[in-house]
Amino acid sequence: MAMLAFLVLAVTAVASGVAVFTVDSMARATFALALSFVAVGGELILLDLAYLGVITVLMMVMEMAIMVVFMVMFMMNPAGLMPMSMLHNKRGALVISAGTFLVLAAGAVTVPWPTRRGAEPADPTRALGEALMGPKMLVMMAVSAVLFATMVSALVLAVAHGRYERPGPPDGDAGPAPRDRLDRAHRDGPTP
Amino acid sequence: MTVSAAPPWSVLVGALMVLLGAVAAASLDGVCDPVAARAPLASRLGRPVFETARLMRQRRRATVAPDLLLWRSGTASPLVVALLMSVVVPWGSSVVADLTVGLVWFNAMDVLLWAAFWLAGWGPNSVHGLVGGYRFLAQALAYELPLMFALTAPAVAAASLRLGDIVASQQHGWFVLQMPVAAIVFLGSVAGFSLWGPFGYPDGADIAGGVLAETAGVDRLLLVVGRYALLAVGSAMAVALFLGGGNGPFLPGWAWSLLKSALVLALLVAWRRRLPVWRADRVMRAAWLFVLPLTLLQVLATSVLAVVRG
User: Fold this and answer.
1) Are B82 and B233 in contact (CB under 8 A)?
2) What is the pLDDT of residue A78?
3) How many structural domains are present in chain B?
4) To 5 degrees, how large is the angle CA A156–CA A169–CA A71?
5) Average pLDDT of B182-188?
6) Is residue A116 within 8 Å of residue A63, measured between CB atoms?
């Protein structure tokens, strides 16, 4: 039963991974990738890593939903209406992907796999949390603060007016606040 | 009250309960609908039946160059997601699937709706549908983080992600007393992912129905039933998380679950038209500037309480 579930999920993951590159629509490619990740999440659940599996599904579907917005927004041809090829730099990509596959497959086949030491913990989620958050709590907290600051500053830098002002009246209808200066001649650049 | 896994056939009972909840919500909504106020009570009460019969006979709408695969997946998904959510929701002293990470499962399933409603909007290749799909994503960005932290609070208080443990630790006091902000945020988010009331922006009348605009016949039936089913499952989940689940005097556990879930569902349905529809940018501003900090404070208070109590 577990073997059957593994096979179904594995075939789904690989097939939808292939579909990402063979479909001709950005939306289909994105959600084929999401399906592939969902199948991988299912594999993790099969390994008794329920928390990691479910969280993989959660993160990946959310990420793909956001990604499809950005792809459709920034592509010249979002490929919903006009079919397009999902392949670029075909020769280089083929070399890289074949090389990666060979390295990983060689590793999987030739490495002597260690046998299990100790027993499976009663609650793998708790064991995972303690492994991550126990001795390395300080690192995790520092990293999360740095990551969050990076994201916020990247957004502030990317949004043209984010550094200095909010375009438009502050709340839609309350009238312009003094510092918004909506009567200025052009909107580019900082307000002097 | 200890919650334990029910036998496998209970999955059918669970699905039936979700559908019954959806029908009850649609009936009550028919009664509350001011547009139908002059219609006889029987036609308002029987709205889910009549509406189902009407939509089952209606022809599907065809649009120019739709992406049928994605469209059909999108319209079918909300109901599927509601059913998948319902397997971890405790009902009295039993639950269909007693997952150790039931709470995270519920959260992952509600995230699937991000894909579902966007696909339902994208699929028909229509402006109104597409705008509706994008509106849903904007709205989801606003409610999702407060929802995640609202779900964290009961997990911290019960020291478990298993919903059975969360219900069990409310034996001597419902979590709504300890974490009212989280409970309110959760109910708001249920309305958010069901496109309900003030969160009906993605299927708003100003864009001719948005994600619902191009659906007709069985497609529309699936989407609308899915929305009511999400509302019903969300209510049952709110009961398990914050209102003590099946805990209560005199009556058996399942009766308390039923009673409380029906009350929460009725509250959500009755409140549908009490508030104007909120634009996604305003929801975003309110959610990230006020609701999210409040929810974080709620989690902090809950955590301190959990540490103090040991």
Assistant:
1) yes
2) 54
3) 1
4) 45
5) 95
6) no
Asked if B101 lies within 8 A of A54 by C-beta distance, the reply is yes
Residue A149 CB-half CA count within 13 A:
6
* Longest alpha-carbon distance in chain B: 62
Chain B CB contacts of A51 below 8 Å:
100-101, 104, 161
Between A129 and B215, whose confidence is greater? B215
Task: Give B297 to chain A, closest Cα distance, Å.
Answer: 18
pLDDT digits (tens, 9 = 90+) for A66-82: 888 777 776 655 545 56
| Within-domain flag for A178 | no
d(CA B10, CA B96): 6
Return the H-helix or E-strand segment holding B246. none
Contact at CB, A55 and B114, closer than 8 angstroms: no
Task: Tell me, yes or no, whether A125 lies in a domain.
Answer: no
Residues in chain A: 192
The count of residues in chain B is: 310
Say which amino acid occupies A108: A
| pLDDT per residue as tens digits for the range A97-116 | 899 999 999 998 999 888 88
Residues A145, A74 share a domain:
no
Total Cβ atoms within 10 A of residue B272:
18
Option in A27, A54, A81 nearest B108 (CB): A54
Q: Is A105 a domain residue? A: no
Separation CA B183–CA A117 (nearest Å): 44
Q: Which residue of A has its CA nearest to B118?
A: A65
Distance CA A132, CA A136 (A): 6
Look at chain A and report how many structural domains it folds into: 2
> Which domain does B225 fall in, by range?
4-309
Q: Does any CB of chain B come closer than 8 Å to the CB of residue A65? A: yes
Closest-approach residue (CA) in chain A for B131:
A69
Name the domain boundary from A81, A100, A118.
A81
Min mean pLDDT across A5-14, B16-25, B225-234, B246-255 is at: B246-255
pLDDT at A171 over 60: no
SS3 B95: strand
Chain B residues whose C-beta is within 8 A of a chain A C-beta are: 65, 67, 69-70, 73, 99-101, 104-105, 107-108, 111-112, 114-115, 118-119, 122, 125, 134, 137, 140-141, 144, 161, 279, 281-282, 285
Higher pLDDT, A25 or A165: A25
A29 vs B: CB within 8 A:
no
Domain that holds residue A13: 1-81
Is A23 a domain residue?
yes
Q: What is the pTM of this model?
A: 0.86
